[in-house]
Amino acid sequence: MRQIDEGIYYEDTFPGVTLGAIIHPEGIIGIDAPIRSEDARAWRSVLMGHHGWKNRFLVSLDSHPDRTLGAKSMETTVIAHEKTAEIFQNRSTIFKGQTIETGSEWESFNETIGMRWAIPEITFNKQLKLHWDAPGVILEHHPGPAPESIWVILPAEKVVFVGDTVVPNQPPFFSDADLDLWETQLDLLLKSFHDYTIISGRGGPVAQQEVHELRKFIRNVSRRLENLANKESLPDETLKLVPSLLSRFEIPSLKKDLYEHRLKYGLYNYYQRTYCQPGNQERLNLE
Length: 287
Prior knowledge:
By secondary structure, this protein is α/β, with parallel strands linked by helices. It has helices at residues 37-48, 65-68, 82-89, 179-192, 208-230, 242-246, 256-275, and strands spanning 2-5, 8-11, 19-24, 27-31, 56-59, 77-81, 122-124, 127-130, 137-141, 150-154, 159-163, 197-200, 204-206.
């Protein structure tokens, strides 16, 4: 674990998302879970070494499989936004995987097929406060990258865990996004959280400049998709945007295909959902 402040940590050595932990004399709050069951159990053991995890909770920052597949193996109470719970209610209790490539990290691990979801037991709408001590920990709804996205805010220590709201050095996920709302959340980070340590769910601490760069990237994507819509282009035309958008990132060769699929899947489905008439929408199949 890497320490951010007293009792506040992040962990970026497991495949998948960057994890968080808030360790307090009254208990521990984990933030997101590793993808694989074995990694989730290992992470749980690390956390259990602190005060025995007397009162323990796991916060899921959204419903993405990369951060929720391993939650069951954490063996604790899961807290999430109410929309996350709704999404899980419409899923099979056993993860069956998909026949399409969405550019998610879990797709690299066949052992994820057959894992069981952990249904959130505590949910909220706008905000939830945990009062172990003042001012405590605030869970807050910040939709944009996904309708159910939340942040974990520690006002006293000026630390905020933002999940996929900020994704540095890689293309973000667009398929379930609201780009206008996403820009609003990035503006909020730039203005109201400028003196906070911002922890990305896919990369750890990020600087304000990285937030600013992502905002410019999302604005560019939004304008280019609007241009296609104004021309009444078919969704397939979004695939032509991928090479130039990918060129903005320094991508390791091993990640190139993953990130390419992420953008193809995300842009196509965002365009379908946002600009196409209901009844004429189909999810992109990249096979």
